[in-house]
Design a protein that fits this description.
9 helices
Length: 319
């Protein structure tokens, strides 16, 4: 079969031939890939930097996809935990990691949206007991996953959602997607800290796609300005677009009710993630969440790796 193949972590994948995978388990089936999203998670696996990478090469990138069975059933599935990903003409699917898509579902929209949307959907439904009427700050709201997080928080009943990020044009887009307020992370540390304290001091949940320096500014800004510091603040760490580490002053853990947790592979079981997928698919298929896919042929994978995208856009490779 043809596939996107990574032979060196220092180079993007190339379009190449690769042995067709074979089924081995009782729940395995072989499907024809219809669409596979090019997510940041896919890029980090392809360059060996993702925390789950074991260094195996060659590899086929891709963590999820929409595929069609020999009987014509359309599935969304999460890839097996091997070096054989989804950016290929065919892939092996464990039926326990797949759901059937409703008739009329746009497979390209699902391939574009499920992975970035899943991060906040699972975080708010599995990592915290989020209640309608609560408030949410999205750190990194100008990215693809952050934009969907703003929409999902609103959809799950948040009374107030604040989106924080860089670039005024992208922040305006975040506002149009439902954010009640936006906070610019451009400017001096003092200005950023003041803006965050004024806008988001009393939120219930922070969904953090940034980490690094913005989080080092945001944590003390929120906790020291909080009306009631004993009120729980759930800080859900999902991404590290601004840095892999932070310096966390010990006083923050004593001076407020700060609960830091992660959401991702390992902190939520595969079964728990899969249990959330049908309801999320329903929302994407219904058009409740704004999705902007950019389909590209699989044989243009090298170009796709370098193609810039507009705010909110996600590249989807189509065999």
């Amino acid at each position: 079969m043809h596939a996107a193949v990574v032979r060196s972590f220092d180079s993007p994948p190339t379009f190449d031939t690769f042995p067709t995978p074979t089924t081995s388990g009782e729940h395995d089936i072989l499907v024809n890939i219809v669409a596979a999203g090019l997510h940041p998670r896919v890029r980090s696996a392809a360059d060996g930097s993702h925390y789950s990478s074991d260094g195996t090469l060659p590899m086929i990138p891709g963590v999820d996809a929409v595929g069609r069975t020999a009987e014509g059933e359309l599935l969304y599935f999460v890839a097996l935990d091997t070096a054989l990903g989804t950016m290929a003409e065919q892939a092996v699917v464990d039926r326990r990691r797949a759901i059937t898509l409703p008739t009329g579902t746009d497979p390209i929209a699902v391939a574009a949206a499920m992975n970035p949307a899943m991060s906040s959907w699972v975080a708010l439904r599995r990592r915290v007991a989020f209640q309608p009427g609560g408030s949410v700050l999205v750190m990194g709201a100008t990215g693809n996953a952050g934009q969907l997080a703003v929409q999902i928080a609103k959809h799950l009943g948040a009374a107030r959602v604040i989106g924080a990020g860089r670039d005024a044009e992208r922040l305006e887009l975040v506002k149009s997607l439902g954010a009640d307020e936006v906070v610019s992370l451009d400017g001096s540390d003092t200005d950023i800290t003041d803006r965050l304290a004024r806008a988001a001091a009393d939120v219930d949940v922070v969904i953090d796609y940034l980490w690094g320096h913005p989080t080092e500014l945001a944590m003390p800004a929120l906790l020291t300005a909080r009306t009631d510091r004993s009120k729980a603040l759930a800080w859900i760490q999902i991404g590290s677009m601004a840095g892999a580490d932070i310096t966390l002053p010990s006083f923050l853990l004593r001076a407020g009710n700060l609960n830091i947790m992660g959401s991702g592979q390992g902190s939520v079981t595969t079964a728990g993630i899969l249990a959330e997928l049908p309801s999320l698919v329903t929302e994407i298929a219904s058009g409740a969440l704004a999705v902007d896919p950019l389909p590209m042929p699989l044989d243009q994978v090298e170009q796709a790796w370098k193609t810039p995208t507009a705010p909110g856009q996600r590249i989807v490779l189509v065999p």
